[in-house]
Design a protein that fits this description.
Layout: E1 3-9, E2 14-19, H1 24-27, E3 33-37, E4 44-52, E5 55-60, H2 66-71, E6 76-78, H3 101-104, E7 108-111, E8 116-126, E9 129-136, E10 141-145, E11 153-155, E12 160-163
Parallel strand pairs: 7-12
Antiparallel strand pairs: 1-2, 1-6, 2-5, 3-4, 3-6, 4-5, 7-8, 8-9, 9-10, 11-12
């Protein structure tokens, strides 16, 4: 998922985009084909995109007025996993700190004291931030806030994530 189409902006077919990607300049570049929900819907081709007042505005080929833009409202925009490429371009300052969700799923989760606590089964995106869904060794799922204070180390090549959990996060109820 790279975004969700919001309300129309103006009368010429532009829409607001709820961005769900760390690389919007790549995902919403002119000529980019975006699929989505429902899967049977015709892919949209980006005609242009720009930032306005902190929101991404996009135009799609064949969408030339407000009514056509309104018909797209709520549509989820996706790309195929094979189109994702690397999470960061070579030379990016944050290249070592960017991962796709698929890179994290399946990683072992250990505490800073090297105690095994489980495996990442999903990355949950919320308006408040990202959460790691960890299948705890006890069999239940624990949601771990994906913030540097709690998740100081992600080692994708090694296959593990190190967490420094607050008291009680992994305790059994």
């Amino acid at each position: 998922m790279v975004g969700r189409i919001g309300r129309p902006h103006g009368i010429r077919g532009e829409v607001t985009i709820d961005v769900r990607t760390d690389v919007p300049e790549r995902r919403f570049a002119p000529g980019t084909h975006l699929c989505g929900e429902p899967p049977t819907a015709t892919p949209l081709v980006v005609a242009g995109a720009r930032w306005h007042a902190g929101r991404l505005l996009a135009r799609f080929e064949g969408v030339g007025d407000r009514d056509a833009a309104e018909a797209l409202r709520g549509r989820v925009l996706t790309i195929a996993a094979g189109q994702a490429g690397q999470a960061a371009d070579d030379g990016d300052e944050d290249a070592g700190n960017l991962w796709w969700d698929r890179d994290l799923v399946g990683l072992r989760v250990v505490t800073v004291d090297d105690v095994d606590v489980g495996t990442v089964v999903d990355v949950v995106h919320t308006p408040a931030g990202e959460l790691l869904a960890v299948e705890h060794v006890g069999g239940r799922e624990v949601l771990v806030p994906f913030v540097r204070e709690i998740v100081p180390t992600v080692e994708v090549p090694v296959g593990r994530i190190v967490v420094d959990p607050p008291p009680g996060l992994f305790d059994l109820e």
